[in-house]
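Dear Dr. H.,

I hope your travels went smoothly. While you were away I took the liberty of generating a structure for the chain from your last submission, since the lab meeting agenda had it listed for discussion. I wanted you to have the full record in hand beforehand rather than looking at slides cold. The sequence, exactly as received, is reproduced here:
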Amino acid sequence: MFEPLKGFFRGSRGGQPGGNPPAYSPSGARLPANGRGSGEPTHSTRPSRGLEEFFVHIRDTTGLTILDLGGATQKNVSFITDLGHRLYSEDFLRILHEAFGPDDAADQTNSGRIEYFLKQTLDYPQGHFDGVLVWDVLEYLNPVLLGAVVERLQYIVRPKAYMLAFFHSDDKLEEVPSYTFRIEQLNTLEIIQQGMRRPAQLYNNRSLEKLFGRFESVKFFLTRERLREVIIKV
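The corresponding predicted structure, in token form, is as follows:
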């Protein structure tokens, strides 16, 4: 009989799978590193077609390994492990801020910093994951760093696995809302907005298809927050 494994968390200095998990905040609050505060965070709950599509491919299986790039939140940990899967969590945007400074996009072409950043966030064996909850983190990477991250994601995720990523649909915005995403149900998300953040770049459907052109397929859903929910099949 399979027993659900506890989630595994890595801190900002990385570490190897199987190490001791660092402490994390049950609230999962993620403050924007280079954005403006906006008082108390705002909460909303809504259906998510992208999340539903992601779980369609894993909900009837147990023992899978999932990566969450939004940082550890108790709801996501409990939801994924209650399904019988193992969860790894990386606070991707916090480590981005540590690696590249207050203005995240300032030095994202530096090969040494890029290698350091990948070591801290995505240092896993080939084909280690059965799925990745990318959320909205890719919007804050310039083209050089983004290319390296997408290439590494393709390496650490097994073939035929799925990734879920979010992108703002208005590609003319100078700042976008900074969100934390918590899983309520197989098709429902709690969304917490905490201020605004400057994206490195924004995308339309064509540019997203180009970005994930080496993957098997890309599927889009548009939400009321004007987010594109993107399902990428590896």
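Two observations you may find useful: The domain at 28-233 is CATH 3.40.50.150 (Rossmann fold). The first strand starts at residue 8 and ends at 9.

With kind regards,
E. W.
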